[in-house]
Amino acid sequence: MNDTQKLLVQASFDKVVSIADVAAELFYARLFMLDPSLKPMFRGDMKAQGKKLMNALRAVVHGIQRPEKIVPILRDLGRRHVAYGVKDEHYGVVGAALLWTLERGLGDDATPDVLSAWAAAYDLVATVMKEGAAEVCTPSRAALRPSAAGPHSVRRPMLAEPPSVRMG
């Protein structure tokens, strides 16, 4: 991501925050429309899940100026999502649902440059999370990097806020 894209994502996120509940509802409705097989991954309260989504987006938006701070968190998040059955192809569906949601939520502010900036931000997130997932899925690498959470811990659903991220 270039600096202009980072600024566009950060500036446009303020409008997303103002419609956070609606944006989360739009996102999940679109996600499940695009791929109904993902719905069983989200068994809890969808309002709470929407808040987790917005918190995760907030962490990314605030962290894109210093990616070295968010990359380890995203990599760990990718490792944890393997336990839910998240596969590489799911990231494309999530990205499509996110961009669709942003286009509707931002209205006239959803310019091609803004949407391109969000696509670049999501590409960073998805790439790093898939790298983390690959560490779990590759036996030789998984043996070198065991999950800190352990094999029997409760896992968070897709795009849940990492526990170590508390951005305001």
Q: How many runs of DSSP E, i.e. beta strands?
A: 0
CATH class: Mainly Alpha
CATH topology, what is it called? Globin-like
CATH homologous superfamily descriptor: Globins
Q: How does the helix and strand content classify structurally?
A: mainly alpha
CATH architecture: Orthogonal Bundle
Helix content percent band = 55-70%
> Largest sheet, if any?
none
Taken from the alpha-carbon principal axes, the silhouette is globular
How many domains comprise the coordinates?
Answer: 1
How would you spell out the order of helices and strands? HHHHHHH
In short:
The protein has 168 residues and is an all-alpha fold.
Topology:
Blueprint lengths: L2 H16 L1 H15 L11 H18 L3 H15 L6 H19 L5 H26 L1 H6 L24
Helix pairs in contact: 1-3, 1-6, 2-3, 2-5, 4-6, 5-6
Describe this structure in words.
With 168 residues, this protein is an all-alpha fold. The chain has a single domain (3-144), classed as Globin-like, CATH 1.10.490.10. 68% of the residues lie in helices and 0% in strands. Helix 2 crosses helix 3. The longest helix is centred in the C-terminal third of the chain and has 26 residues, at 112-137.
List keywords for this structure.
Globin-like; disordered C terminus; mainly alpha
